[in-house]
Amino acid sequence: MGKNTELVDRHVNAFNDHDYDALGATLADDVTYSDIPGGTVSKGRAEVVEYAKGWHAGFSNARITEPQYFESNGTVIFQFVGRGTQSAEFGPGPFPNTGGEFELRAVQVHTINDDGQITNIDLYYDTMTMLTQLGHMG
Prior knowledge:
Blueprint (H helix, E strand, L loop, with lengths): L2 H14 L3 H6 L1 E9 L4 E4 L1 H14 L4 E10 L2 E11 L15 E12 L5 E8 L1 H8 L4
């Protein structure tokens, strides 16, 4: 595993452990996180940490599983399966709590700077599949 992949893996483990200090430590001060299907952009370490907390607020058991990493020239492409049970209202809907479960394949593209910090993350996933699994769409 390359050093950039190890960094992204630490980031993922911090998310799964709800360890927001460790998660923040993987990020550059001026990091940008784009949730492409959700249409949101978080700028700066504090906003990105709050974004992670938002997932846990809506899905207290949210986990990243089945990680696959592909590293090249300061970029780590990370494919995974996200899983969780809706435990509260979430999102830009906002979507009321259904107690439904989701299991969703997703991809993140991480850009790493020369100081070994994540400077950009782009997240891609299928929103319709997620909302259907949770019971928000027929």
